[in-house]
Amino acid sequence: MLPYPQIDPVAVSLGPLQIHWYGLMYLVGIGGAWFLAARRLQAFDPGWSREKLSDLVFWVAMGVIVGGRLGYVLFYDLSAYLNDPSLILQVWKGGMSFHGGLLGVLLCTWVFARRNGKGFFQLMDFIAPLVPIGLGAGRIGNFINAELWGKASDVPWAMVFPTDPQQLARHPSQLYQFALEGVALFAILWFYSRKPRPTMAVSGLFGVCYGVFRFIVEFVRVPDAQLGYLAWGWLTMGQVLCLPMILGGLALMVYAYRRDAVPGGAR
Length: 267
Known about the structure:
Its EC number is 2.5.1.145. This protein is mainly alpha-helical. The protein is about 60% helix and about 5% strand. The protein has a two-stranded antiparallel ribbon with strand order 1-2. A two-stranded antiparallel ribbon has the order 3-4.
């Protein structure tokens, strides 16, 4: 068993003002994606300015934050928020959903694309390789908060989390997700997208890989207490939400490559 590193979730305290590591992880994710997007901006569109890229980053960030919060409300704890709608604004208590954030990004990207004369999937293929930076940073934030831990286990790297009332050695599932959704997914998408690919292919690969990685980790991650398992003693809400991502991603990739193989098909 490995000792859990005792890290104060509050990074900086200035009187009543507290800056949490989890919030800083959002800044790391957005800032890192912005930096790497700037490196690929000329290859994406030589006519785009840094200001245009800044606008895109702002829209995507809003999609992540607003969509992530509303997604958690709708997918994971709707009854509690119906009973007390003010909870929606209490973001310091946690409660963000990746799938809600993804829907928010899709909507904001669609609006931005229409306003700037770009194809929706052109933008999504540009954005997709940048997303794992925020995913990985967010999982580190979960680990520092000692939340979203895994099932009890006797693996040598199991940890006892201070927030666990049972004080059992558990899978550090946040680190599994950091390794898969952050590091592995970034490497796969970054190198795949370095060469020209059919439009939609990069977006499709993101959906497949994220969906598979998340589906796997859910087997060792404790589900949200208010939901538990949805069926068969193992199916979680996270897995249910990942299934359309996997199927949709496969469909996009098949369609992209078939269309590209047709004479005159768009890349």
